[in-house]
Amino acid sequence: MAKLTYDNVSKSFGNIEVLKSVSLDIEDGEMIALLGPSGCGKTTMLRLTAGFERPNFGAIYKGSSVLSDARCHLAPEKRNMGIVFQSYALWPNMTVAENVAYPLKIRKIPEEQMEAILFDALDMVSLLDFADKEPATLSGGQRQRVALARCLVMQPDAVLLDEPLSNLDAHLREVMQNSFVEFHERSGATMVYVTHDQSEAMAMADRIAVMFDGELAQVDKPQNLYSQPKTERVARFIGQSSILTGYLEKRQDGCWRDVVVHGQEFRTRQDQFVASQMEACPVSLCVRPEHIRLDQENGLPARVVGSTYLGERYRICLEMSDGAEVVAYSGQSARLGSNIRFTFDDAWAILN
Ligand SMILES: Nc1ncnc2c1ncn2[C@@H]1O[C@H](COP(=O)(O)OP(=O)(O)OP(=O)(O)O)[C@@H](O)[C@H]1O
Hints:
This is Iron(III) transport system ATP-binding protein. By secondary structure, this protein is α+β, with helices and mostly antiparallel strands. Helix content is 25%, strand content 36%. It is built from 9 helices and 20 strands. The strands form 4 sheets. Strands 6-7-8-3-9-10 form a 6-stranded mixed sheet, with helices on both faces. Adenosine-5'-triphosphate binds next to helix 1.
């Protein structure tokens, strides 16, 4: 296993700069998700790590050894990295055991040793009972676990996963998320997981690197990304959020600070840049739906523009007079077009 370091890595295809001075440390044994909208450069980052592409600037290290820099570029097969794609790339005419053992055969590992490694890997992905089956007889999730086991037997320093669950249905995806987490815990592998599905990233990763337009917008634990987004764009991208414009009061002690929104006073948590502003200043407030309270009489006025039943609760969409959209959760539905008021008991202030 190994730490991966990206030092000011840039990559262009023709005139288009797809990665822009990306710097990131992925700790030994960490599972990090690269999360971002389509085209933001996630796969390119993975391909650079695997050695399929070479950076134009900057360097990539595994531990203390250089994988790629201006002078050297280690070939993919010399990087000792396992790669799992969304297409499982299994040999259809081989059994599960033969598929998993294939890399060991190529490496001419002795038979007895091969058997022990093979069964250990199959056990880790709960496929011991499927050793003699052919891939065609397996479900998508089971095939993906075969691909994972095959990558595991090579004892890679890092496992690179490119949207490995995107071909599976919602239920199987959830089951497989648990399999990946278990696999990560048991193997202790450094894992880089590319996805555009934030719930997947939230459920599995130790940290998430949010990418927009070839740049890292925030690298943080899932909980921090949700409760303390660095920018309005991250706040809008991660989870449901309403962005309100507010005016912070002068600095007081403590981590909470008074903020005025449309003439009414609330309290907000603040990021470190906001906290360093002593004087009153305008801010954007990120308010999550679970912190909004609907009220008939008190709070900010808004109009109900949507009410969707989610099973355990309703999602109520509101529109304020300045056009700001607000999303709240409620135990009850709300009448479309009706006037309502709302307050919030938690918010996160971001300096514009
Ligand atoms: N070999 C290539 N030649 C030219 N352009 C490329 C090449 N590979 C990627 N790109 C471009 O680089 C940009 C980033 O692509 P990349 O596949 O890294 O994005 P992504 O975030 O993984 O997107 P997705 O989630 O859709 O897979 C895209 O605009 C893509 O068209």
